[in-house]
Each structure stands twice: as C-alpha cells, then as structure tokens.
Amino acid sequence: MPNGAGEAFQTEMQRAATYLVPKRGTYDLGDLVDRANETFSPEVRGVIGAVANEEYVNAGRCFAFGLFTASGYHCCRAVEAVLREYFRLFTGKAIKGTEQWGEMIGGLEKCSGSLIPEPKTLGHIRHVKDFDRNPLSHVRAVLDETDADILLAASKVAITAMAAEIHKKHLTGAPVLELVKADGSA
Questions:
Q1: What is the residue-averaged pLDDT of the chain?
Q2: Given this model, what pLDDT does residue 186 score?
C-alpha cells in the first residue's frame, strides 16, 4: 500500500461495523444474511411476491445474527403474506388486512366447487399457526436456535405448498393474484 494508505485503512477498520457470525447448521452465511429467499425456487419467489420474499430474507438475517425470536416473527409474516393471497384466490373474498389466520383457514376449509385447497397444504398452514405462530404471539415466548431453524423450515414448506397451488390455479385459468401487502395496499 502507498504511504498513508495503510494508516487510513487501519483507521477506517477501527470505525467499521464488523461482525463475527457463527455458522448456523449447514446454511451458507452469505445466503442467510442477504438471500434467504433464494432457498425458494425462482418460480416460487415469483409467485409469493415482494412482501413474503422480503420477510423471509429478514427471517434468515435474524437467524444468522442469533435473533431467533425475531426470525420466527419474520417467518410467520412471510407465511401470512402468502396466506392472504391464497385465501383470496380460493374464497374470492377481498383482503381487508385484518383477517386472522384461524378465520382464513376456516374459510379455506369451507371451500367447495372447482377451487378447493389441498388438505395437505392446509395442514402445513395449520401446523405453523398452531405450533409456531400462536405460541410465538405470547409476550414471553422466546425461540432458541433449534426452534427458529424448525420454523424456517416449516414456513418454507407452507409457503412452497401454497405457491405451488397458486401457480397451478393460474395455469388452469383461475384468477391471477394481485399480490398486495397485509394492509391492502399494492
């Protein structure tokens, strides 16, 4: 380095925010921190929309930095973003942004006719709701690394299952989804 450049670099590095992030299971840390949504295929990422993709990226980032409870919240928010559109597709009801998971699952279970959700997909959604989201909504709930890892996987399964059905319905001529945020805005 030219004279002074080494000192400038040393000064900058003393002020730089640097982190030591331990390896989490078999995850690639770069993927966890910046691209957790790439665990989904490009087709799934295209179907689930920007909100779910962003929430899943945030879940991975929180998991990487050891913020396991926050990771769980973001996982649930990603599932919910897709669930709202899944609900709208199968029930034809407009999304207000105030629907509860139980209401949406109940509405999906009542579907009849040509647009009926797969029972297996509903089982995945209900599992995330009953075993992860509902317990996590309690103020004192805290996830450890194992809990957060399980929720990352469970949310991926639920999201992928919903996305596969959304994609299938799109290909068979069902109404195309207008992916919106939970508050109803585009």
A1: 88
A2: 53
Task: Count the Cβ atoms, other than its own, within 10 Å of residue 33.
Answer: 18
pLDDT in tens, 3-17: 567 788 778 777 877
CA 124 vs CA 53, 129, 174: distances in Å: 19, 9, 22
- Over residues 68-84, the pLDDT tens digits come to 999 999 999 999 999 99
Q: Is the dihedral of CA 52, 98, 93, 107 positive or negative?
A: positive
CB atoms within 10 A of CB 132: 23
State the pTM of this model: 0.82
Assigned token pair, 99: 């629907």
Residues 31 and 54: their CA atoms lie apart, in Å, by 13
Question: Whose CA is closest to 101, among 70, 77, 73?
Answer: 77
The rounded Cα 121 to chain-centroid distance in angstroms is 15
Instruction: End-to-end CA distance of the chain: give it in Å, rounded.
Output: 51
Backbone phi and psi for residue 4, each to the nearest 5 degrees, phi listed first: 90, -25
